[in-house]
Every structure is written in structure tokens, then in C-alpha cells.
Amino acid sequence: MDQRDADTRAASRRLLATSERELQRIVLDMHDGPVQDIFAALSQLQVLERALAGDAGTQQRTRQAMRLLERALGEIRNFIGAFRPPGFERRALGEIIEGLAVQHETLTNQAVELQLPDDLGDCVLPTKIAIYRILQEGLANGHRHSGASRQRVSVARRGGAIELTVADEGRGFDPKRVLASEEDVGVEGGHFGLRGIQDRVEMLGGTFALDSAPGRGTALTVTLPLE
């Protein structure tokens, strides 16, 4: 690797770390802002519902508004739970991956079959963050699109790199069509997260492979350098 490539790689790692910090700031702002406002609105509506005991029609509309707010609050809390930082600096890679698999099962009721070696070890912070976010997006895509009841995740060291595979036996899709353009990915394909995964891998100098076809499932494999 020449000096220009090394400088580019270092700049990409700094950018990813900055993006992660920005994401955590957004999550914190959501918790301290909209979540508290929605909770306060629900409390006021509960008081109003009790005061409208003699007006069945208005009371019903108030309950409908409360249900909408409760649903919105639940979705925001799920988002905050998914993107809250898992302690990247102080927790080992294997522990973080196990925690994410459990979280996915809890939120989706979709089983995750995890293959994780005892001697996986740790890696530099940008790679650890990337592995976590790629796995998070891979599991989310599989849950939304595959129709499978379970997903398989394997993580291993391959020389000087970490290899991550997320696979399922779901309905599958045509990768060339989905990744052909931003329009296909964002609108028709509905797999916009795959573009983000590909970009993140390229920024860290890794490799990205996607094996899928209609009717035979999907396997996403990424390899990222340890340093």
C-alpha cells in the first residue's frame, strides 16, 4: 500500500468515526426531545379522555389519537434502542456481536444462528464499528425482505482480516438489478441498506460479496482489514 492509499484509508476511518458520533448525537437528541414531548402529550390526552367521559364520540377520537402517539413512541424507542452505542471502546468484538444478535431476536422474533469462534479477539475501533453496523443492516434487511424465520451469522478471522457472513434461506432477489443504480436500490428494490454496506466496506479497503437469487435465499459476505 503506498502513502496515498494509506492516507485515504486513514481519512475514511476518521470519517466513519465522525459519522458514528453524529448518529449517537441524533439518538440522544431524539430521546431528550421528541420522546419527552410525545410522552407529555399522551399524559395530557389521558387527562382529557377522563374529562370527556360524557361525550362518547370525542372520547373515542381522543383514544385513537392516544393509540397513534403510543405507536409512534414505540417505534422511536425501538430506533433509539437499535442505534444506542453498545460500548465500542470497552467491549470486545465478539461480545458486541452476540449482544446485537440477541437484540435482533428480541425486537423481531426472528431467530439468529450465530457462529462465533472463541479466539476471535478484537480489532481497531473503526473496523469494530463497521462490523457492528453492517451486521445490524444485514439482519434488518433479512428480516424485512427475506420472509425467512431465521438468519445465520458467522464471523471469523481470515489472515489479517475479519470475515462476516449474514445468510438466510428466504425468497432471495436479483443482486444485479438491486445494485444496478441508486434508483433501483432506493425505490424499486427496497434494499437501500445494501448500498450503504458496500460504501462502508469500500471506505475501509475491504471486500463485498452478495450471493442471491429468487427462491434460493441470500448470503452477504464482507471482509474488512483488522488494521
Secondary structure elements and pairings:
Layout: H1 3-32, H2 34-51, H3 56-83, H4 93-108, E1 111-115, H5 125-145, E2 150-158, E3 161-168, H6 175-178, H7 182-189, H8 192-203, E4 207-212, E5 218-225
Parallel strand pairs: 1-2
Antiparallel strand pairs: 2-3, 3-5, 4-5
Helix pairs in contact: 1-3, 1-5, 2-3, 4-5, 5-8, 7-8
Notes on the structure:
- Residues 182-192 have low confidence and may be disordered.
- Strand 1, helix 5 and strand 2 form a beta-alpha-beta unit.
- A 5-stranded mixed sheet has the order 1-2-3-5-4, with helices on one face.
- The chain is α+β, with helices and mostly antiparallel strands and 227 residues long.
- It is built from 8 helices and 5 strands; from the N terminus they run H-H-H-H-E-H-E-E-H-H-H-E-E.
- Helix 1 runs antiparallel to helix 3 and helix 1 (3-32) crosses helix 5.
- The chain has helices at residues 3-32, 34-51, 56-83, 93-108, 125-145, 175-178, 182-189, 192-203; strands at 111-115, 150-158, 161-168, 207-212, 218-225.
- The protein is 60% helix and 16% strand.
- The two termini are 13 Å apart.
- The protein has 2 domains: 3-82; 91-225, 2-Layer Sandwich (Heat Shock Protein 90), CATH 3.30.565.
* Distance between the ends: 13 Å
Q: Secondary-structure element order, as H and E?
A: HHHHEHEEHHHEE
Structural class: alpha+beta
How would you state the average pLDDT, rounded?
81
Overall 3D form: elongated
Helical content, roughly? Answer: 55-70%
- What CATH calls the topology of the largest domain is Heat Shock Protein 90
Quaternary structure type: single chain
CATH superfamily of the largest domain: Histidine kinase-like ATPase, C-terminal domain
H/I helix tally:
8
Task: Report strand order across the widest sheet.
Answer: 1-2-3-5-4
Q: What is the class of the largest domain in the CATH system?
A: Alpha Beta
